[in-house]
């Protein structure tokens, strides 16, 4: 579970994992918004006192979402990301969620392959979005 003293380490991890974020994905803002909405679905993996991974979930009562899965680059392929994803899935299932969605860039083949290994599949849907003023 996220703790307030994790903030600087989480932000540093996200800067490595998600370089050049869009303004609406600025880490400090994302953290503040998540802490205001379902903070119990914000998970941080810690090893030897250091933040090594994160994952956030969301649930609207109908569908669940998986967000911001990140693992420190030098510790990837050790099962940390898988454990984080499974932890979010279990937390969502406890809330009554029966389906989890996520979005990744189609060009990020290694991340698409990671999720495929965990049982996620590309669905024939059109993902649409609209930026709002806030």
Write the layout of secondary structure elements.
Elements: H1 7-17, H2 27-36, E1 42-47, E2 50-59, E3 64-71, H3 80-94, E4 100-101, H4 109-117
Strand count, sense and barrel status of the largest sheet are: 4 strands, mixed
Remind me, CATH topology?
Answer: Aminopeptidase
Order of helices and strands: HHEEEHEH
SS-derived structural category: alpha+beta
Please name the fourth-level CATH homologous superfamily.
Gcn5-related N-acetyltransferase (GNAT)
Terminal residue distance:
27 Å
Strand content: 15-25%
Number of helices: 4
CATH class: Alpha Beta
Average pLDDT level: 93
What can you tell me about this protein's structure?
With 134 residues, this protein is α+β, with helices and mostly antiparallel strands. The chain has one domain (4-102): Aminopeptidase, CATH 3.40.630. It has helices at residues 7-17, 27-36, 80-94, 109-117; strands at residues 42-47, 50-59, 64-71, 100-101. The radius of gyration is 15 Å and the shape is globular. The mean pLDDT is 93.
